[in-house]
Amino acid sequence: MGASLLITLREGMEAALIIGIVLGVLTRFGQHSLKRFVWAGVLVASVLSIGVGAVLYGIGIAFEGELEEIFEGATMLLAAALLTWMIFWMKHHGRRLAQELEANTRQAISTGGKALFGLAFLAVLREGLETALFLTAAVFQGDTLATLWGGLVGLALAVLLGVLLFKASVRLNVRTFFNVTGLLLLLVAAGLVAHGVHELQEARVLPVFVEHVWNMNPILNEKGAVGSFLKALFGYNGDPSLLEVLAYVAYLIIVGIAGRPGGVRLGRFVPFRL
Length: 274
Fold this sequence. Notes:
single chain, 274 residues, mainly alpha, 0% strand
């Protein structure tokens, strides 16, 4: 539940900020009648994202045996990769996001409602498809019902914070919010990498080498209350294999180097822009 809540809170806040900026520009220009096109874009993108999530989940449960493990492992690794791209992209492009959106919105106003629909649709669809993939990976890693509840709570909090923020009822340091959630999500991504490796080992796609490096289950069982929470949030495994540990540590080292000043700017290679 914790991972899905954090994911939808972060993604929902990004979408809320984007839509809030677009609506703010329309308000300043007195174009209130055009707001319906923005909300229509939000609605269509949201429905499509839910549909994609349902399809991904359906495909996952349709597979059996090694095919199921391969699909789940690949989904987790893909989700971890996309999560990492998203965090670094936001870190390096977030400062210019508002200016770019305002410029795009002004241009869309002169074009008409269809352009505003497309602007809102693409912005929300990007966040929605990312969320669908992340939640699918989280479902494979933990309890389905808890994941869905966590996702709904996170989304509700994101909507609430977005509304309060743009009504000036709260003063949220957006930069701090994204920095903190970005750090936590990198740990979530590390867990997805390790768990993805585990699934691919179960499917005999990857070698095992050493099956259990240690066994912490007698002290902190991964099936217990705390262990289950840590497993769902950070991919905790009480008795990981050597390759799982190496994958987890290697991921954190790579993103740590990339996140340092002068490090590799992963955001430069993201093949899309808001």
